[in-house]
């Protein structure tokens, strides 16, 4: 039940309204940049799915959608080790690509992903993230567009999970310590 999920939230960090306003604003900027480019919008599963669906619906540029599932390992390194669980179906050579992420933490995932996708020779490759936690950065990666810079707290909701739960909360919240320190 949603009540139980809400009870596990220490505080709401970003409300639905705050996120919708910011996404609308950034979507307007992206429309200007990607107008007439028919970009490939890449959703990095699973966490980005909620942000992705709101972002694309706020944009009016002609676009194509694709999905990718990856996980990085070698935590704390910039070795670029990336496991592709599900690859794109689109050939991105010569295409304008916008990678849509929910959160950049260590940066390991995006660092490796950017390298992998750049090897496929897109016309352009940019990254947008809903959340950026720069304090935790290990890999030298800077997103091209950021909706919110946040502090180093355990956030869940709006696509972000703890043990695969809480993704369907409509806001971004800070998870109570008691939940993950059990
Ligand atoms: C999260 C997030 C990024 C990555 C960021 O995905 O969506 O892909 O971690 O972390 P990093 O900057 O430290 O590499 P996760 O692996 O939790 O998968 P999920 O989206 O399916 O929950």
Description:
The chain is of the alpha/beta class and 182 residues long. The protein contains five helices and nine strands; from the N terminus they run αβαβαβββαββββα. The strands form two sheets. The chain has a six-stranded mixed β-sheet with strand order 4-3-2-5-6-7. Strands 1-9-8 form a three-stranded antiparallel β-sheet. Helix 2 (16-34) packs across helix 3. The model has no long low-confidence stretch (mean pLDDT 94). Bound molecules: 1-O-pyrophosphono-5-O-phosphono-alpha-D-ribofuranose. 1-O-pyrophosphono-5-O-phosphono-alpha-D-ribofuranose binds at residues 44-47, 71-72, 101-109, 161.
In brief:
By secondary structure, this protein is α/β, with parallel strands linked by helices.
Task: Reconstruct the topology from this structure.
Layout: H1 2-7, E1 9-14, H2 16-34, E2 40-45, H3 49-58, E3 64-72, E4 82-86, E5 96-104, H4 108-118, E6 124-132, E7 145-149, E8 155-156, E9 172-175, H5 177-180
Parallel strand pairs: 2-3, 2-5, 5-6, 6-7
Antiparallel strand pairs: 1-9, 3-4, 8-9
The structure holds 1-O-pyrophosphono-5-O-phosphono-alpha-D-ribofuranose (PRP).
């Amino acid at each position: 039940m949603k009540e139980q999920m809400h009870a596990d939230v220490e505080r709401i960090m970003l409300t639905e309204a705050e996120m919708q306003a910011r996404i609308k604003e950034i979507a307007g900027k992206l429309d200007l940049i990607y107008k007439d480019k028919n970009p490939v919008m890449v959703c990095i599963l699973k966490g980005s799915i909620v942000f992705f669906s709101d972002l694309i619906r706020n944009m009016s540029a002609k676009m194509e959608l694709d999905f990718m599932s990856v996980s990085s390992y070698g935590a704390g390194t910039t070795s670029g080790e990336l496991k592709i669980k599900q690859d794109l179906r689109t050939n991105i050579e010569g295409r304008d690509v916008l990678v849509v992420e929910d959160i950049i933490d260590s940066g390991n995932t995006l660092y490796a992903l950017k390298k992998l996708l750049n090897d496929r020779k897109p016309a352009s490759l940019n990254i947008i993230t809903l959340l950026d936690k720069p304090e935790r950065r290990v890999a030298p990666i800077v997103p091209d567009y950021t909706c919110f810079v946040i502090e180093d707290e355990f956030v869940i909701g709006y696509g972000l999970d703890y043990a695969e739960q809480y993704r369907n909360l409509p806001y971004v919240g800070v998870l109570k310590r008691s939940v993950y320190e059990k």
